[in-house]
Q: What sequence folds into this?
């Protein structure tokens, strides 16, 4: 299934022309926005907007990340920070750090569960962008770290998702899945060798895999995410009383 590489950033001045930072996967990024009237006739766009609203209102993974970003001074607004667009067939979404927008691939996201995972995955990139000075353009280790965190915390690598991909029964399957998907995402948005992508992921893997903010745990299921969201809100109340 199409899943989400991160950081579909704007070309940085002086960067080599042959690396477009993944923009080739998101052709609508460079088009003039269509009017609301024109967009309203496209079923893909309407479906994407409805599923996005459902995710933001009911999904505990997304709700926790939205609350954490708000507390970090990066409030997310639906109309400003999410954009439903047509993309290359291999991706579900992306984070455009140049505009602080999350791109949702309306032609590829067909199920609510997929929308939930894509929004969560990209919100983790947005959260990292908010809390840290991430050099998405030039530092592949920074990109690798955020991809590791997104794969680890978004539900991308739950047992059920791995079984659906016919990957199960592996020892340390979660870590293996996180590593593989981080490498895959880097290769989708950067013109680097597989060896370079693997080296970047391996060098930062332990530190970034163990960075569980803002969840405080690896949410292996919706129930885990609900507990994490509850604990996050309680932590905030506790800190407010100190």
A:
């Amino acid at each position: 299934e199409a899943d989400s590489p991160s950081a579909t950033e704007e070309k940085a001045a002086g960067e080599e022309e042959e690396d477009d930072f993944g923009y080739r996967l998101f052709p609508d990024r460079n088009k003039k926005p269509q009017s609301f009237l024109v967009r309203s006739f496209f079923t893909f766009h309407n479906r994407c907007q409805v599923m996005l609203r459902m995710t933001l209102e009911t999904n505990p993974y997304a709700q926790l990340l939205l609350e954490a970003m708000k507390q970090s001074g990066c409030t997310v607004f639906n109309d400003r920070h999410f954009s439903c667009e047509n993309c290359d067939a291999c991706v579900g979404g992306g984070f455009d750090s140049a505009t602080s927008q999350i791109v949702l691939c309306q032609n590829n996201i067909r199920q609510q569960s997929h929308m939930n995972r894509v929004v969560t995955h990209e919100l983790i990139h947005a959260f990292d962008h908010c809390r840290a000075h991430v050099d998405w353009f030039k530092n592949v280790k920074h990109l690798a770290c955020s991809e590791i965190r997104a794969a680890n915390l978004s539900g991308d690598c739950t047992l059920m998702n791995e079984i659906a991909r016919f990957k199960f029964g592996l020892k340390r399957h979660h870590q293996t899945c996180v590593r593989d998907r981080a490498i895959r995402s880097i290769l989708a948005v950067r013109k680097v060798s597989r060896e370079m992508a693997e080296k970047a992921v391996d060098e930062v893997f332990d530190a970034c895999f163990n960075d569980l903010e803002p969840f405080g745990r690896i949410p292996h299921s919706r129930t885990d995410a609900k507990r994490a969201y509850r604990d996050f809100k309680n932590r905030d109340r506790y800190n407010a009383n100190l």
In short: The first helix runs from residue 36 to 39. Residues 7-16 have pLDDT under 50 and may be disordered. Residues 135-220 form one domain.
